[in-house]
Amino acid sequence: MPKEEKNDVELLKTWALPTAATLGSTVRAKGILLEIRTRLPSATKKSLDIDAGELALAMPAGSKAEFHAASAVVAEALENIQTLPVIPREIQDILSITTTERHRWLKDGRLPSAGTRTVKLRGRARKITFHVFDPRMVEHLLDRGVVEDWREEDAAAAAENRRRAAYKAKLTRSLKSGGSKIASSSGPNDASVDLSGWEEFRRDGLLR
To answer: Spans of biased composition, class Low complexity (predicted)?
Structure first.
């Protein structure tokens, strides 16, 4: 076989990602890919890709040394991949929740934080910090199916808050209206005020 043809032959190795690691999320699977890529040399990163939940490392036949080195890195990373913290976009996909729900439930403790992570945005000096989550906690919530229960609780709480706000507004209006009536009824020109004895008081000259 000519040398140029031999160089076109690829070295290929694949690894199936366990469901316990991806939690059934394609977003999580892509996050695992990106995490492992950070551990590879720059020239090798793009040689690792994912398709249908399976990692694939492909290189030209002439890159055996680099291929074996990269394979070892991937294999080592996958040993404890199930413990890789879940980042915000992943937990939203796994639990099918919105960003607003994630923030609300993180704040009230229903989504316990496993700490924070700071990353630098690609091509920018700016860094961002965000909360991450324990994958076993996320799996537990997924198995229990608590999201719909939380949404019902939130809807009931919101309805109660609206009811209380409406009652408070009504009470405030009633108090203001009642105060105005009392003020107007206490004036000197109100015909309903009992002025008995007024004429005698005027005749005695006490107003002069």
So the answer is: 174-187
Q: Is the Cα dihedral 105, 111, 117, 123 positive or negative? A: negative
Q: What is the pLDDT of residues 99-122, one digit of tens each?
A: 999 999 999 999 999 999 998 877
Separation of alpha carbons 6 and 59, rounded Å: 12
pTM listed for this prediction: 0.73
d(CA 92, CA 104): 13
Classify domain 6-82 at the CATH topology level.
Gyrase A; domain 2 (3.30.1360)
Domain residue ranges of the chain, discontinuous segments joined by + = 6-82
What tokens does 37 get?
A: 């890529």
| Nearest of 78, 82, 24, 74 to residue 53 by alpha carbon | 24
Structure tokens at 1: 């076989």
Residue-wise pLDDT tens digits, 49-86 = 999 889 999 999 999 999 999 999 999 999 999 999 99
What spatial distance separates the first Cα and last Cα of the chain, rounded to whole Å?
A: 133
Residue 199: its pLDDT value, please? 60
